[in-house]
Amino acid sequence: MSERDEPIDDFYVDPAVVVGVWANSTRVQRGRDEFTVDFRRHVPDPSRRFLVARALLSPAVAFELRDQLDGALQSYTEWSMPKEPDDGD
Q1: pTM listed for this prediction
Q2: Number of domains in the chain
Q3: Do the Cβ atoms of 57 and 37 come closer than 8 Å?
Q4: 75 pLDDT exceeds 70?
Q5: Which is higher by pLDDT, 60 or 89?
Q6: Residue 88 domain-assigned?
Q7: 49: which strand partners?
Q8: Are 52 and 41 in contact (CB under 8 A)?
Q9: CA distances from 61 to 54, 56, 89 (A)
Q10: Rounded to whole angstroms, how far apart are CA atoms 41 and 63?
Q11: Would you say residue 89 lies in a domain?
Q12: ∠ CA(21), CA(43), CA(73), 5° rounding?
């Protein structure tokens, strides 16, 4: 199996893609039959913006993404929030 054929879960990812991109801004546009999600990076000095990735999603995939993000954000909130102090009960 070549480096290009390394499995990730149940699919294969090109090594050029596996590292991902850093985005600190997003924009979603709705088309007639799809959603376009732009992942952008804003660099403050000098002020510039870069489109680092773009995904076109069917409505079904957009709903799936929403559900997965909701679950991930809920899990993150539970992990990151301070624990309640023990009240002695």
Answers
A1: 0.72
A2: 1
A3: yes
A4: yes
A5: 60
A6: no
A7: 42
A8: yes
A9: 14, 9, 45
A10: 24
A11: no
A12: 50
